[in-house]
Predict the structure.
Amino acid sequence: MHPAPLLALAGMAALASTALAQQPRPDVPPGPVEPALPYSPSAAAAAQSGPAQTGGIALKLMGALVTVHPSIKVDLRHDDNLYLAPNNRASDQILVLTPALSLEARQANNTFGLRLSMTLGQYQKNTADNYSSYNIGAVADLDLGTRLRANLSADYLDGIDPRGSTNNPLSPTPDHYHQVQGRSIFSYGARGAKGRIDLELGQLRRNYYNNRAITAAEDRIVDDIGATFNWRIEPKTTLLVQGKHSRVDYTLSSSTLGSVENSLLAGAMWEASAKTKVAFRIGMVKKDFDDAARASSTNLSWTGEVDWSPRTYSHVALSLNRAPAETTGGVGNFIDRTNTGLRWTHDWSSRFTTATSAAYATDAYQGAARTDNTQSYGINANFKMRRWLSFGGDYAHSKRRSDDGNFDYQRNVFMLFLNAAL
């Protein structure tokens, strides 16, 4: 397939609608996104740059090699519980179109990435939920000398909280927001040296622009500063200590949710074998509120990843996380959130791949008599017809049980998709 038709298709998709926001992944309950605590430089870089890509259109601009990757994805979904309701569930079919364009460039020892994407959704019956969303993200990995390197990232998102995904009352339309996030990580230490220090600075700004009678209370700014000391004790084993300070400010003058979070964690990263890689950190995080009427809280916090590849074509990933998250709708002071997830990806052939996943999450609302337990699982099948063209299907089930029965739900999402990417 020549690149021109695909680029034209992506362009037409981007212009097709201006009244449609970001649809959440069907395998997890949707909701507001919070910066993870503690912060992982490697995970942040991977999230910004995205998965490794092949193919693309190679160009040479100003002495740098630039690879352009246009893509488009078409999803047809059936959701049997749009608003995560315990009873009288609303169902619908949703057509989702996602054109995207990513650029990768390398100049000397520096690499750069840029990604632009738009998501358009059309509901068959519940047209008030139609959405459009777009995202612009950039990342730069810079080699600044023998001992100094930097990872810089910036991201702009025009997105939504789907109706029913937060504790806010159901509005006539989804809650739309603009979110800007920037982060810089400076690493000091020669490549191959035993010791390395990572210093990080970051800021996230989220502002809602509709349903303001409710959403004005959700506008906030999160400032982060942190440092991680890494010490390699074996060729494949590194110990680390990480400290982080976060300031959460709500822009509404009457809000009492402003707080400071301080965390200190210690852990290790190691390759247990040629097939297994492990990273884990554990420690304490303390959250202090500006308003003395809201009690401070000190809790365990952890993050962990285990990647196991028993075969070159089979991969298992286990993720563990516990950290504070901001509440919505004025329920409690904050959420003590714990997540455990397992994913198995298997290539049955060079063309056919499946991925199965399961997760369990607990949201304990501090300052309120409410705990939510959510379990989810799903399966995805992908068939590659050509290097640039694939199709498949996805099924996801999620179930929440809450101390407040108004927030119980069960949800099933079925999806058929078609991907085209150079």
